[in-house]
C-alpha cells in the first residue's frame, strides 16, 4: 500500500508539472498573438507571466516539496492575468471561461492547504463578479480575433478538463489510500501492546477467524517465572526491559504466520498452526532452552529468567471452543508453576 501511495504522489507531481508546462505553452501563444494584434500592455503581461512560470518550474525542480507554494503562485498568476486580460479586452474573448474553469479546478483538487485554497477560490469568485459589473465593454478586438480567442480558450479548457479528470481520479485514489492507512494505524493501535509491540487480546479473535478455521494448531500460554522478584529487585523499568527482550525473542523464534501476543502482565499467548503435538512441543522446548541459556544484563547485574508453558492442542476436526482451550492451557500452566516452574506442560 505504501508503494502505491508513493507512486500516486509521484504521478500527481508529474501531472502538475505537465499542467504548468501546458499553461506556459499557452502563455507563449498569447505572447505571439498579442504581438501580432499589437497590444503592448498584454505583451508585457505575458512576458511577466512567462517569468512566473519559469520561477514555478525552477522551484519545483529544486525542491519537489515546494509543490504547495508553487500551486499558490500558480493560482495568483492565473487570477491576476485573467483580470488584466478581461479589463483590457472586455468580456467575449473567453477569458471569463478560463477564470471559471480554474475556480472549479480549485474546488475539486487541492494540492495545498484547504483553508487557503478555499479563501483563494472565494476571492476569485468575488473578483469575477466585480469584473462583470465594473469592467466596461470594449471594442479593442475585431470580431475575428474575439472569436479566435474564444475558440482558443474552449480548446484549452477541454485539454485542461482531460488532465484534471485524470488528476481527480488519482487524488480520489490517494484519499482512499490515506483512509486505509489511517484505518490500519488505528487497527494496529487497538490490537497492539504498546510496550512489547506484540499483538494483544483484542487481536486474537480476528486471527482465529482469519487463519484457523478447520486447521490444527497448538495454543500455548507462557508465563515468566518469578517475574515479580525482578520488578521488586531492579525496578519496573528493568522489568519492562526484560519483557521487551523476551517479546523480541518470541517474535524471532516463531513464524510470521503464527500468533504471539502479550496476554497480560508477564503472560504471553502463542498459537502455532499447522503443527502436530510433537512439533509444537519441540518448538516450545527450543524457546525454553534459549531462555535458559540467555541472560539480561543491567549495570553490573546479570538477570536470568525462565518460563513455564501450558500447551492445549486442537486437531482441526472437533468443535472449536477457544475459551475452553485457553482455560485448559492456563490450568496446565498453573500446574507447572506449582510443581517446580520452568516446565512444559501438555496432556
Gist?
This protein has 347 residues and is an alpha+beta fold. It has helices spanning 2-37, 40-62, 67-89, 95-108, 114-134, 143-190, 201-211, 227-234, 236-253, 277-292, 322-338, and strands at 217-224, 259-264, 267-273, 295-298, 301-304, 307-314, 344-346. The protein has a 5-stranded mixed beta sheet with strand order 2-3-1-6-7, with helices on both faces. A two-stranded antiparallel ribbon has the order 4-5.
How does this model look, in words?
Helix content is 68%, strand content 12%. With 347 residues, it is an alpha+beta fold. It folds into two domains: 2-187, no CATH class; 201-346, Reverse transcriptase/Diguanylate cyclase domain (Alpha-Beta Plaits, 2-Layer Sandwich), CATH 3.30.70.270. The strands form two sheets. It has a five-stranded mixed beta sheet with strand order 2-3-1-6-7, sandwiched between helices. Strands 4-5 form a two-stranded antiparallel sheet. Strand 2 and strand 3 (267-273) form a beta hairpin. Helix 2 (40-62) packs antiparallel against helix 3 (67-89) and helix 3 runs parallel beside helix 5 (114-134). The chain is elongated and about 105 Å long. The two termini are 44 Å apart. The model has no long low-confidence stretch (mean pLDDT 84).
List keywords for this structure.
Alpha-Beta Plaits; single chain; two-stranded antiparallel sheet; alpha+beta; five-stranded mixed β-sheet; 11 helices; 347 residues; 12% strand
